[in-house]
Each structure stands twice: as structure tokens, then as C-alpha cells.
Amino acid sequence: MKMKRVLIAVLIGVASMSSITAKAQISINVNIGQQPAWGPTGYDHVDYYYLPDVDAYYYVPGQQYVYQDNGAWVWRSSLPSRYSGYDLYSGYKVVMNTPRPYLSHQTHITQYSRYKNYGSKQSLIRDSRDAKYVNARKGNYNKPAQSRPNQSRPAQVNSSPSKQAQVRPNQGRPTEVRSSQNNKGNGGRPGGHQQGNTRGKGGN
């Protein structure tokens, strides 16, 4: 009888630990609270946006823009002055959940050039009434982390075409580029992007 009680206690402990681990994993994979108000709806996790109008990337976990400056890739809190008039809310955004997408820069220029001056044809987080986005705007969904990818700055990276990232056909909604990698949790940390991108339902 005593052994039976011990066994039950052990099973309860294991079940509790499994539940905690699962919740922690979900928390890691979801970063709705970090996504900017000008981002498109429909994604529970986003690492990068590619902005065809200004030929730059936006790293969501670190809240930084990634673009070329004198041939080197730099990370900045704002776009260069030449794009000071660019409206992030009206420009098209391509969701990219691949590590270091800027290494495929030339490929992206070709693939997404048709979205330059595309206009505001995406459902934006700012305009969504979905509860998860409302809570995110109030800071109650998940808190933004001011993080940088855990690697050295990608300075002097050649922007020659690399292997094309797998692209899902555009069907009138934000285009998402997925990685073939299977590791999770490093986000755009240019070296360990989490492939477990959890796509939420598009919320308007």
C-alpha cells in the first residue's frame, strides 16, 4: 500500500513537470507582445520582417532594423535618414522565420520586388480586435525582450545570392518564409532560428 502511494506521488510529480515544461515551451515560441503595431496579423511568432520598399529587415525580438551600410550589414534602432519619410503602416511586410535571412538578400530583392509601393493591403496588428493583440498592446500578453541575436555583428557580409529560402505561395495574405531547420528557441538569432513557428489564425 505504501509503495502504491509513492508511485502515485511520483506520477503526479512527473505530470506536473511535463505541464510546466510544455507551458514554458509555448511561452518561448509565442512572441505576439514583441510584434510591432505595424506588423501583419496572423502570426503567433515572428523573427524577421523583410521590407521591400526600403530593402531592409526588421528583427522582432531585438526590435532593430538590419540593412546594408557601405557594404556591411548593420543593426540599428531606426532606418537610415534617407527613409525618414517611409510609413511602416502602409508598406508591405514579408514574414521570415529563418536564421540570418539577410544572407539571401539578393534572392529576396528578386522575389518581393513586386511588393514595392504595394500599399496598405495587409491586416495590421494596430487595427485588429483580436483579444490576443489587444492584450499585447496593453502589455499583458508577453513582454518584449530587448535581445540581440547571440552572435557577433554580421559586418562585411557578402550579399551574393545564396540558396533560396523556401517560400509559401502568396494568397493575398502576408507571405511567410520558413526555415528547413527543426531547432527551436533562438528566433532570428542568426544562427538558431526556431523552426517551430506557431501560426495563429489571422485576426482582424
Give a verbal description of the structure.
This protein is α+β, with helices and mostly antiparallel strands. The chain has a domain at 42-178. The protein is 21% helix and 14% strand. The chain has 3 helices and 7 strands, in the order αβββββααββ. The chain has helices at 2-29, 105-112, 131-137, and strands spanning 48-51, 56-59, 64-69, 72-76, 94-97, 166-167, 176-178. It has a 7-stranded mixed beta sheet, with no helix packed on it. A hairpin with a 2-residue loop joins strand 3 and strand 4. It is elongated. The N and C termini lie far apart (57 Å). The model is unreliable at 18-27, 142-147, 150-172 and 179-204 (pLDDT under 50).
Return the string of H and E elements: HEEEEEHHEE
* Global geometry: elongated
Distance between the termini: 57 Å
Assembly status? single chain
The strand line-up of the biggest sheet is 4-3-2-1-5-7-6
Mean pLDDT: 72
Structural class: alpha+beta
Q: Radius of gyration in whole Å, from Cα? A: 19 Å
What's the number of extended β-strand segments?
7
The count of helical stretches stands at: 3
Q: In terms of per-residue confidence, which ranges show pLDDT below 50 for 5 or more consecutive residues? A: 18-27, 142-147, 150-172, 179-204
Biggest β-sheet, characterized?
A: 7 strands, mixed
Portion of residues in beta strands equals 5-15%
What helical percentage do the residues reach?
A: 10-25%
